């Protein structure tokens, strides 16, 4: 499970104590709500289904998959499904191959989602072996589903924008600079990312 509200608050307070600009951001927008996903295969399958489509479209495809295939919590179901069945539910040819890649990694035992490496970079390296799961998706999974406190998705556009705003940069910082800014915030960077998304949403509501 992801970081709890208590963990998020404690981590943000730890950063804010050393960084007045973060403290000012919390004063402006308050503490963020937790972002929690279930740990395991289903969450990663949902990630693949939801790529580059709207939330409504992703829900429609998921429901069609469930209706056509059955219990989507079991990777054996997708592993045994034909390409025609996956395509009939609305998956593109590429996404069907991604879904099958995930199912094969899990059913073969090459990927054990209950026992990913404790080292974050090693865990990311395992997850990106799945076709269709890049570094960003792996980081989001580890943050939202496993609650790893030091995860820092520096490649996320909203994180870059809001960390730039929070820290007073005139322009959006690069992924490299966004990573460097947060380095002193270990092991609380995951909460900082959640604060950045919360800050981004607040900015959008003001516009």
The number of distinct helices, counting runs of at least 4 residues, comes to 12
CATH architect. name of the largest domain = Orthogonal Bundle
Q: How many strands, which pairing sense, and closed or not: the largest β-sheet? A: none
Instruction: Give the C-level CATH assignment of the largest domain.
Output: Mainly Alpha
| CATH fold node name of the largest domain | Endonuclease III, domain 1
Distance linking N and C termini = 33 Å
Shape, please?
elongated
Helical fraction equals: 55-70%
> Which percent range describes the beta-strand content?
under 5%
Summed over residues and divided by their number, the pLDDT gives a mean of 93
Q: How do the SSEs run, as a string of H and E?
A: HHHHHHHHHHHH
The number of E-state strands comes to 0
Structural class: mainly alpha
Radius of gyration: 18 Å
Unreliable parts: none
Structurally, how many domains make up the residues?
2
CATH superfamily of the largest domain: Hypothetical protein, domain 2
Describe this structure in words.
This protein is mostly helical. The protein has two domains: 5-36 and 149-206, Endonuclease Iii, domain 2 (Orthogonal Bundle), CATH 1.10.1670.40; 41-136, Hypothetical protein, domain 2 (Endonuclease III, domain 1). Helices cover 62% and strands 0% of the residues. It is built from twelve helices and no strands. The protein has helices spanning 5-18, 20-29, 41-49, 55-69, 75-80, 83-88, 93-107, 120-127, 135-144, 157-166, 175-182, 189-206. α10 crosses α12 (189-206). The radius of gyration is 18 Å and the shape is elongated. It starts with a helix and ends with a helix. The model has no long low-confidence stretch (mean pLDDT 93).
């Amino acid at each position: 499970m992801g970081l709890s509200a208590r963990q998020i608050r404690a981590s943000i307070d730890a950063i804010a104590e050393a960084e007045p600009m973060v403290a000012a951001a919390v004063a402006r927008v308050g503490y963020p709500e937790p972002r929690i996903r279930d740990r395991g295969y289903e969450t990663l399958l949902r990630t693949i289904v939801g790529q580059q489509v709207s939330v409504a479209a992703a829900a429609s495809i998921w429901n069609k998959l469930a209706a056509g295939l059955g219990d989507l919590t079991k990777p054996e179901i997708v592993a045994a499904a034909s390409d025609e069945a996956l395509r009939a539910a609305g998956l593109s040819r590429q996404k069907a191959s991604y879904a099958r890649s995930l199912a094969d990694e899990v059913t073969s035992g090459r990927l054990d989602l209950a026992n990913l490496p404790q080292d974050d970079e090693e865990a990311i390296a395992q997850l990106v072996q799945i076709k269709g799961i890049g570094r960003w998706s792996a980081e989001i999974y580890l943050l939202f589903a496993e609650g790893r406190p030091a995860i820092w998705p520096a490649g996320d556009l909203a994180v870059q924008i809001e960390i730039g705003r929070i820290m007073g940069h005139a322009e959006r910082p690069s992924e490299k600079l966004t990573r460097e800014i947060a380095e002193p915030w270990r092991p609380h960077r995951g909460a900082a990312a959640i604060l950045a998304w919360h800050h981004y949403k607040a900015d959008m509501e003001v516009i």
